[in-house]
Amino acid sequence: MTISVPRRQTACRHCSSPLSTVFADLGATPVSNDYLTEETRFEGERFYPLKAFVCDECHLVQLEDFRRADDLFREDYAYFSSISTSWLAHAKIFSDAMISRLGLGADSTVVEVASNDGYLLQYFQASGLRVLGVEPCRSVADFAINEKGIPTRIEFFGVETAKKLVAEGFQADLTAANNVLAHVPDINDFVSGFREILKPDGVACFEFPHLFQLINQNQFDTIYHEHFSYLSLLSVQRFFAANGLTVFDVEKIKTHGGSLRVFACKAGAKWEVAPSVADIIEEERQAGLDRPEVYTSFGEKVRETKRSLLELLISLKRDGKVIVGYGAPAKGNTLLNYCGIGSDFIEFTVDRSPQKQGMYLPGTRLAIKAPEAIDEAKPDFVLILPWNIKDEVVEQMSHIRDWGGQFILPIPKAMII
């Protein structure tokens, strides 16, 4: 296997301060979404350092940058948002809430950045609103266009793209950007793009996993190369303000192990700042997210989470138990590669996405099969890799209880459920 020659990023991607405080060092791993085919699983893979730092100035947690965004988010990107029924339900609730809260109607325009396969915009379009998706990955964008009829631009978003869309008449009443803010290497250009595309009183809504929960729940597997940043409201409020956006409201939501939904507008827009903004900022300060100690101590929590999972799996294998995986998410590949869990522990994994079935996980080379493979194998244990949707998985696979099967959750500490 080949180790790449690193192009080290030594300065904060927002404020350019030197990066020296290590948040988590997960060794070297392949890119989490670089799934292998039947042919390429016999070839070498590139492994890249997976090391996160925190900026001592603006508190933005971020990776060393070894791959360009257009290398990571390719034409054949395999993650289709519509595969998860719970995520579709989340999208429908959000669209209904935004139409009501913002008074959106037939003359309103909704633009989603990182619109994936049209999972969200389909609900706004069904309500009669004008919609546009902006999505750099052709595989999912083509599905949105051809299968769901969602107009989609296949390109990366930033200031220039925003200005071009405004010139074409796509100035937005609402923009949505769900679970993409962490994926952009140039945060300043990306956020400034929303300033450009919004109408004077338009609203930009962002959802992202909350760094507060990542630390509290030992969610180290959410660290992978496609995520350039890990976000607190402290850091988000700062770089939004630097790029012409004001955070005026924030909600805690349960997705992805605990996320924030942040509402922002242009500086000087009509929206009043809600008490929720100060409340969450204070909660983060009380948790120490404005001090280095909480970041430097996280590494030992990561190592202990690894130990507890390996201890459980070793014990089960010594008892002759059969273990398979459920899911092939990016976070699962970080978990398996960092913990050194391969075919010596897990027979295979399954995934509902047809785009992943028949492929192999990067690094571990575990086969990805259809969920029916679990019924055939009748394993003793199923390791849930997308633990953020554990309730959905347990409900879908509840029949494994019929033969005495049980589930394993790896995060925040390995446990049998």
Automatic annotation (TrEMBL):
Gene Ontology biological process terms, A to Z = methylation
Return the SUPFAM superfamilies for the record: S-adenosyl-L-methionine-dependent methyltransferases (SSF53335)
The record, for CDD domains, names:
AdoMet_MTases (cd02440)
Q: In its UniProt entry, what is this protein called?
A: Methyltransferase domain-containing protein
Q: Which UniProt keywords apply?
A: Methyltransferase, Transferase
Q: Name one GO molecular function term.
A: methyltransferase activity
The Methyltransferase putative zinc binding domain covers 12-73
Q: Which Gene3D superfamilies match?
A: 6.10.250.3100, Methyltransferase, zinc-binding domain, NAD(P)-binding Rossmann-like Domain, Vaccinia Virus protein VP39
Q: List residues of the C-methyltransferase domain.
A: 255-412
- One Pfam family for this entry, by name? Methyltransf_13
**InterPro entries to which the protein is assigned, alphabetical:** Methyltransf_Zn-bd_dom_put (IPR013630), Methyltransf_Zn-bd_dom_put_sf (IPR038576), MeTrfase_14 (IPR013691), SAM-dependent_MTases_sf (IPR029063)
